[in-house]
Every structure is written in C-alpha cells, then in structure tokens.
Amino acid sequence: MGLSSKLFAQLAGRAAKAAAKRTKEALDPDRLLQLTMEGLVETARERHESEPSPRWRPGEPIKLLFAGYVGTRNTGADVRVEEMLRQFRHLFGDEHCDLSILTIDPSKTRGYFKTVKQVHVPQIFPKFLFDQVRAQHGVIACEGSMFKSKFASALTTMMAGALGLAVAEEKIAVGYGGEAGAMDASLEDMIRRTLGERALVLTRNDESSAILERLGVPTRVGTDTAWTYEGAPDELAEKLLRRAGWDEKKPVVVVCPIHPFWWPVKPDPLRAAVHGLTGAYEKSHFESIYFHEDGPEVDARFDRYIAGLAGALDDFRRAHDVFPVIVGMEALDRTACEALSKKLARRGAPAMFVSDEHEYREIVAVLRRASLIVSSRYHALVCSMPAAVPSVGVTMDERIRNLMRDRGQRDLLLNVDDEALDERLFEAMQRAWSDPDASRVAIERSVARSLVRQGEMGVHLVDHVRAHHPRFPFARHLGSSETGGDGDPIAHLPPLAARQRLILERWRAVELGALQA
Predict the structure, then answer these.
(1) pLDDT tens digits, 432-487
(2) d(Cα 31, Cα 13) in Å, to the nearest integer?
(3) In what order do the strands lie in the sheet with 351-354?
(4) Separation CA 262–CA 283 (nearest Å)
(5) pLDDT of 5 over the 60 cut
(6) Going by DSSP bridges, is the β-strand pair 138-141/413-415 parallel, antiparallel, or unpaired?
C-alpha cells in the first residue's frame, strides 16, 4: 500500500531537515575539529591495544604533559599554572618527575615555568596531541575554563582531546582546578564518549562537578591553584605606581575591564581568507581562522558596559581622593582598557598596566597594593585576595559569581549587562570602601578555605596516581589514610609565603573543621 502524498511530504521534509543538519555539522569547523579529535582518540585506543604505550617503571621519572591556555599573556592562566607546577613538584619531587607544558607562543612564556619543558602547540592540534600524549605517562588539563563553550569550543576540544587520548592509552588523565559550564551538545557528547569513568577532574566548585558527573566523569571538588602565589614585594608595585604618577599617599583604586560581549571565538575559514587577502575584519580577528563576535549590537553592549564602569569610577573619584589605575589582566584586554581610559580622560587619564607590557609578577604586585578593586577578571580577584584587598566583581559568567558566593559577599557582585551598572557599581564600591575590615575578614576566610581545598586536591592527586602506579615513590605521609598517607591537606601544598601562612594560622582550625564536617 502506497504512502499518501501528505505523509510522503512529511517524511521527505523530515529527511531533508536531518540531511541539512548533518551537512551543516559536517561543514562547521568546530564540529569538524571535534570529530577529528574523537577519531584520533579512537585510533589511539586501537593502537594501544595492539602496541601498548610505554608505562612508567620504578626508577624513572614520571612524564606528565600539562595542557592549557598559556602563551597569550593571560595573567590568571600563567599564575595558576605556575602554582600548579610548584605543587606538583612538591608532591612528586623534582628528581621523580619530568614535566612538559603546551604553550601557544613560546616567546610570551620565555622565563616562566622553571624546570618545565615548554612545547609549542600548533593552531591545528589533534595530530600534534596524538603524537605528544603517546610519549607521556599522563596528561594534566590545566586550563581554568576547562569545559565550556563561552570562550571557544576549540579550547574545550583540546582539553577533552588531550585527556581522552590519555584515557585511551590507560594513562593518568586529570583535570586540575578547572570549571565546567554551558557547552554545545556536541561537546558534551564528546566528553561523555572520550573521558568516561577513567579520567578524574578536580573542579573549582560544586556546580562544575554536577555538570561533569551528569556526563559520567568522576570529579572531586577543589579550587583554583593561584592561591599559593607569593607575588613580588610591595616595593615593586610602589615603584611602578610612582612612575605612573602616584604621590605615595592617595589610596589606589584598580579597575580591571574586559570585553564581555565578543565571545565566543569561532572559526570562520571564509572570513579568514578575506582577511588574509584584504585585511578586512581586522577588528574582530582573534588569530588564525578564529574571529570574535562582532556587529552593532556587540558594540552597543560593550559601550554601555564601559560607560557604566567609567560613570561609577568618576562618581567614586568625586567622593574620595584616590589614585585610579586600569589593569589589563590579558593582552586582549587592552581594547577594553583603552576604551575605559578614553571615557575617563576628561578628569585625567588613569595609570594603565596591561599584561602585554608587564609580566604577571608586576600585574599581581599592583593588584595587591590597591585599596579597592573592581574587576570583571576572575583572577584579578583571586590574585588580590591573599593581600585581603576589598573587591567588587562585575561578572559575565559563573566564575566570579561562584567566588563572591564563597566569600559571602553577593552584595558586591554585579552583571556586565546590568542596565543600571553605573549607579549600582558606585553603591557597591561605597559599601566595600566604608567597611574594609568586614571585607577583609570575608576574604581571608575564603582564602584559608581555598588553601585547604587546594591541599585536598593534592591528596586526591596522590591517591589517583597511586591507583595507576602503586610503586611511585611518594613521601610516606602524602595521600589519604586509605592509601597510607596522613591526609593532611596543608602538607600537600607547596611552601607558602608569609601572607598565606598568617591567614592559615588565623583560620585553619575553622576551615579544617568545616572540611571534616
């Protein structure tokens, strides 16, 4: 019996839509990258079954590859990875580990990450990772925004791909201090298929763990890894500020702007070709074939955000005799820094420090010398908190929101697209300014809590490596009691600077008690 013409049309329409969807996916560069990466993970699994990858043997150093987002002069990424490497070296011992790290631009990480080999990762990375992971005993994903589509799906593809290759070859596969957020469905499927139950992700918060557990990936809740950073002495910041016109008396107020609305970055080969031939799309060009979101609406939202920051800072300068400073935590932030500086020029352009001209030790020194910080950069807040600098967050996503919730200071949190950003930000700055002692107590307790969590991450890491390699020569006290250690999280931290030691002395008993509870 033949199909009715109506039913045939319906079925044909559905088939056409499905075919169009498949065609669109096949032509989408992000999806093509994911499919390529997944294919190489499966190839690595088959290769390992026939030719097992070399395993770590007692007496030799363990080879670990750190995959992240360094080499772009991103202060937060560089500091958190520097401290992560310091913690790993403390736990494993320099003589027992051989560490390598991927860098997007070796010239921008020259002199960073002492004793660690830097490996230049190409823009098109799947085959490169396929070859690199084969020579390692494990992979550590070290990007903070580890699993999310907010900034660039390609970055999550790289994190999941590197860990997936390690899983396929039965190696250590750990995500360390990362976050998960909203992702494209195809990325979620990739993580579910490639990581499975053999990887371990130590997340920065409960929300990230919930997302990954839903995808079948085991997690433990930890924190960021920048908390242990010692930083440069105040004298360095004071020298830099004096050069910029500071009179050594006025309180320093720092603002860290970003461009919140030009994300995510997406590949566009056709636009890249036109850009290469004519120079068009220069404003939105990120690098290689990748481009920022752009257009009149993006520009309008950015202008409103910058105007809100400028208006609040102008109001604050009228109310208080302060020395304003603009800080760009990543080289990309120069666009936002210059736009904000232009808005503020009528009262005298503020001093400006951007990471394309200053190393991370200088940037962090300036942050810690401030009396108040307003930031849309997560790590500007994290890096300033060991100095207990009162701060206000203006957020584009969940990272700063989670941090301010942990501090118990949601009243000092605003959104980048708040229609009354000017007035509400000024009010938040006034609250933080009027009661700095209350801010310091909340911040110090959060720092102590985070240091304990970072130590706990070290405990979980030692246990995970012992599960793979029971004969690895960790110090006897390391790891949890279940694996023969004493489980003390503080013993799993690298040596601490005076600032962090004092904070732990004040709050350690409270935070350890909360952890045990």
Answers:
(1) 999 999 999 999 999 999 999 999 999 999 999 999 999 999 999 999 999 989 99
(2) 24
(3) 351-354, 323-328, 252-256, 372-375, 391-395, 413-415
(4) 11
(5) no
(6) unpaired
Looking up tokens 């700055």, which residue turns up? Answer: 429
Residue 312's contacts (CB-CB under 8 Å, 6 or more residues apart) are: 374, 421, 422, 423, 425, 426, 429
At residue 171, φ and ψ (nearest 5 deg) are -110, 175
pLDDT value, residue 23: 43
Q: Residue 362's closest CA among 472, 486, 234? A: 234
Q: Which of 202, 225, 223, 226 is nearest to 212 (CA)?
A: 202
- Residues with Cβ within 8 Å of residue 255, at least 6 apart in sequence: 309, 313, 324, 325, 326, 327, 340, 350, 373, 374, 375
Q: Are the beta carbons of 497 and 230 closer than 8 angstroms?
A: yes
What proportion of the chain, given as a percentage, has pLDDT over 70? 89
Q: From the CB of residue 264, how many other CB atoms can be counted at a distance below 10 Å?
A: 17
Helix axes 421-434, 296-319, angle to 10 degrees: 40
Instruction: Name the maximum alpha-carbon separation found in the chain.
Output: 92
Q: What is the pLDDT of residue 149?
A: 80
Copy the structure tokens of residue 352.
């400006």
The pair phi, psi for residue 118, each rounded to 5°, is -100, 130
- pLDDT, tens digit (0-9, with 9 covering 90-100), for 291-343: 767 888 999 999 999 999 999 999 999 999 999 999 999 999 999 999 999 99
- Tokens representing 281 are 């799309």
Q: Which residues contact 322 (CB under 8 A, 6 or more apart)?
A: 250, 251, 252, 253, 316, 371, 372
Residue with tokens 């088959």: 46
Give me the residue label for tokens 């904000």.
340
